[in-house]
Amino acid sequence: MTRLYLSLILILPMIAGCSSARFYYDAAPLPFEDIDYSFSMQSATVNGSVIAWHDSGGEGEVLLLVHGLASNAGFWRYNVADLTAAGFRVIAVDLPGYGKSGKSFSTPYGMKYYAETLDALLKHLNVGKATVVGHSMGGQIAMTMVLDGSSHVKRLILLSPAGIERFKDGEGRWMKGAVTPEFVMATDEAAIRANLASNFSCWRDELEWMVEERVRMAKVPEFERFAYAVSRCVAAMIDEPVWKDLEKLTVPILVVGGENDNLIPNPYLHGGYTADVFRDGVARMPDARLEMVSHAGHMLQIDKPEVINRLIINNMR
Amino acid sequence: MRTLIIVLTLCFSAPALAQMPDYPVDDAREDGVPGEPPAELQFIGYLFNRFATTNIAPTNELLRAQIIGRLFGANSTTTFPQTAVFGASRFVPLFVYRPEIVDGAAVFRSLFKVDMTWGDTNYGVGNNTGGAISGGTVNIQTLMANLELRPADDFNVIIGLQRLFDNVRDANVNTLWTNQTSGNRLMFWGTQGVGISSFMKLSPVTQGRLAYYQLYENQIQIDDDVTLWMADAETRVNPLWELGGSAWYLRDRGAGSGGVSILGQGFNSSLANYNGAARLQLQDPKYKADVFWLGANTAWNREFTGGRLWASGLVMANLGNITTLPEDGSTPQEVDIFGVTAHASLAYKYGQTLDDRISVEGLYTTGDADNTADNHYSGVVTGNYWGSPVGIYSSHRAFLLFPDAQVINRYYSAVHDISNLGYGTSAFFLNYFNDLIPHKFSMKLGAAAALANEAPDLGGNFMGYEVNAEFKYQYAVFLTMGLHMAYMVPGDFYDSPFVRNSEQRPNDPWIVFATIAWMMF
Is B364 exposed, middle or buried (0-12, 13-18, 19+ CB in 10 A)? Predict the structure, then answer.
């Protein structure tokens, strides 16, 4: 029996050798402007904020890709090339507070602010109509654009969108109180890895870049501004709900959810099936349909990029 | 013309003004929305209610509600043809005080345990008995009252009554679940004690703990104390692989004096009988002992951070010696100790959540068939010799064969101390977890079986087996309702009259209990 246990313990190093996970605490700081998205970015001052975006150009229909909380345009790296190759003009934006965009403390981070900023960006780029593809918080921003009367939105494709799940007042206050800038800044490497892993149906080695990027960018002074933006965005998602107004979303909408989404519904506050949340929301939207992706977590466009790209392309036809 | 220029200027300047940077890029944090300062006084509460029906009860009239230790052992718990129905409640408030004026340099924590039985007495051995009416059974114990000093960012010093865990992690800020599933899993030390400990960050991936606990101080003017010294370290070899080591030393000069009320403490005290440890048959009641523990533990992908397989293992050796102190001038008895514990677990996450998993777990502890007759004890030593309960191995998730932590003050199981009365054990656990509704409603089906590595006189090696089931429903955030059930078949180990407290072999024990647990933030 002793031999059995010792054998099991000796197996562990062999298992460990199967992973390419490594530490980044001793890696060089990564300034936000140096993050490699695998596609080019440009920037300008729009709606009072410095905003960065990628524009593939071309004459095709416009897809505006809006990332979620605590991420950036680089989180579309598995999508931009395929969608561009499919003939679309792809615009992937860094929301103010994130990525290569400005991170002013005095920016009024919020859903309406982001909606008006994206509206201004489309105007700045002389885009008439665009399909807005929003992931998570980006989905709530996309819905806010429609509710605020943006004339640029042709249709919405919402990937694991925030804003459909309902939160009671007390729940919202609890969430807002939990995510402070200091909380974001104090997150250590192990917690960062665990948090990122919770976005996926199963963590894979090829996702290591996400841990590296997050750990290294936490070492630059600008990170405090990022942490502030994250904190304010959590508050804004609670304070500027869209779930009450889903009936007013008159544009065509495709909602895509992951069947293994561990973040929607909130695992601590609600629990339950992601599909149930989205099914209820879609039922209230005048022109919407739901697609659930199997073996996929919250970060759909990275967890199942081929499936998501195909869904987007097919939905545009 | 001049008016036209003004009008045109205004017309063209309006869009331009809309593009002007209203929000300065290089502003200061003070320009943002002010955050609320953290509260100086923080309250975290834990409320636990348990309503049970079982065929297990104590025969000792004194032990009506406060029953700790080995099922069928000296605490008089055994099985009856009748069915007992009872309830109990526990409230555990934690108060954390971080006065702004010291700006994080000091934190005070206090933790209390308020126990209420539903009608019967509470803490029979603690001289606190009373009727249910008028709240007479409410019993309060202090679990923590400590000061945390933080001289630097990378280490702290905790002084006072605090958690005494066999884990390198600071128990002030880590969950019970973490302590049950990492380090040494609380199987040796999982209690509270007064002392000084320091938790330190030795490198970005390495943490350490140094601790000193004073378990007993009998007569302050003489050297008759029991003290425990602990040193632990753990590093991450890579992000998913934890490797730790422990070295502890216990100096026992208490000679059995002190301890839990009339039970006393130490190697030859009746406390060992209650807790399921081996009561060593020393030639003299007075003794001195030095015990060392040296061990290593490891875990791969704990809590499935980086994949679907979670593996862990630990090996712990306890060694030392006991020297009796005969008062009649006779030759002292010298007993040397050397025991080994090995544990391994493997879990596979087949579904979406942490509760979609299947796990196997094994425990092996060396045994000793003849106690100290050969002046050698080859069994395992845990903290259960010096307190009750102290070693609380419960990651296996069995309910009757091994201890389950979901209890209030009726806390018993067949193999309550991993030394298994000194006979040692080889135990195997299998659990299937399933989140029927993700993060909302879960179930567990489990089985456990154990052998004694040394058989008692007139008995066999088979301790028995258990099957169990559990359902848990999350009613609200951190408020969970559960229904749990277990049935155990005792093995031929209990053929021996020396390991049971009844004339006949005990009937098969069973229990069904409902729980309501609320973690209050």
Answer: buried
CB-count exposure of residue B380 (10 Å: 0-12, 13-18, 19+)? buried
Helix (H) or strand (E) holding B112: strand B106-117
- Per-residue DSSP letters for B410-431? EEEESS-STTGGGT-EEEEEEE
What is the nearest CA distance from A317 to chain B, expressed in angstroms? 33
Strand ranges (E), A114-167: 130-135, 153-159
Q: Give the DSSP per-residue string, B291-328.
A: EEEEEEEEEESGGGTTSSEEEEEEEEEEEEEEEE--TT
Q: Decide: residue A106, CB within 10 A, 0-12 exposed, 13-18 middle, 19+ buried.
A: middle
- The predicted complex's ipTM stands at 0.90
Q: How far is CA B50 from CA A251, B46, B89, B414, B502, in A?
A: 53, 13, 6, 20, 28
User: Which chain A residue shows the shortest CA-CA distance from B352?
Assistant: A260
Instruction: Please judge whether A23 and B238 are an interchain contact, meaning their C-beta atoms are less than 8 angstroms apart.
Output: yes
Residues of chain A in contact with residue B19, where contact means CB-CB under 8 angstroms, are: 45-48, 120, 124
3-class SS of residue B224:
coil
> Cα–Cα–Cα angle for B188, B193, B199, nearest 5°?
80
Tokens of B93: 């408030």
Per-residue pLDDT of chain B (521 residues; tens, 9 = 90+): 444 444 444 343 333 333 434 445 568 888 888 888 888 999 999 999 999 999 999 988 777 777 889 999 998 999 999 999 999 899 999 999 999 999 889 999 999 998 888 877 666 544 455 455 666 667 788 999 999 999 999 999 999 999 999 999 999 999 999 999 999 999 999 999 999 999 999 999 999 999 999 999 888 999 999 999 999 999 999 999 999 999 999 999 998 888 877 888 999 999 998 999 999 999 998 999 999 999 999 999 999 999 999 999 999 999 999 999 998 989 999 999 999 999 999 999 999 999 999 999 999 999 999 999 999 999 999 999 999 899 999 999 999 999 999 998 889 999 999 999 999 999 999 999 999 999 999 999 999 999 999 999 999 999 999 999 999 999 999 999 999 999 999 999 999 999 998 889 999 999 999 999 999 98
CA dist., res. B84 & res. B80, Å (int): 9
* B56 neighbors B401 (Cβ within 8 angstroms): no
Q: Are B346 and B306 in contact (CB under 8 A)?
A: no
| Cα angle, residue B204 at apex, residues B200 and B207 outer, rounded to 5° | 30
Q: Which of B305, B344, B437 comes nearest A5 by C-beta?
A: B344
Tell me the two tokens of residue B381. 């030593």
CA-wise closest residue to A217 among A182, A183, A178, A184: A184
Give yes or no for a contact between B372 and B280, defined as CB atoms under 8 angstroms apart.
Answer: yes
Crossing angle for the helix pair A137-147 and A111-124, nearest 10 degrees?
70
Please state the separation of Cα A253 from the chain's center in Å: 18
Using a 10 angstrom Cβ sphere, with 0-12 exposed, 13-18 middle and 19 or more buried, the burial of residue B303 is middle
DSSP track, A226-284:
HHHHHHHHHHHHHHS--GGGGGG--S-EEEEEETT-SSSS-TTTT-S-HHHHHHHHHHH
Mutual orientation of helices A169-178 and A223-239 as an angle, nearest 10°? 180
* pTM for this entry: 0.91
Q: Which of A6, A16, A124 has the CB atom closest to B238's CB atom?
A: A16
The count of residues in chain A is 317
**Mutation site for B-interface testing, chosen from A2, A3, A8 by largest number of B Cβ within 10 Å:** A8
Cβ neighbours of B102 (radius 10 Å)? 11
Q: Which residues contact B407 (CB under 8 A, 6 or more apart)?
A: B50
Phi and psi, residue A206, nearest 5°: -70, -5
Q: How many CB atoms lie within 10 A of CB B329?
A: 5
CB contact, 8 Å: A42 with chain B?
A: no
Distance CA B463, CA B459 (A): 10
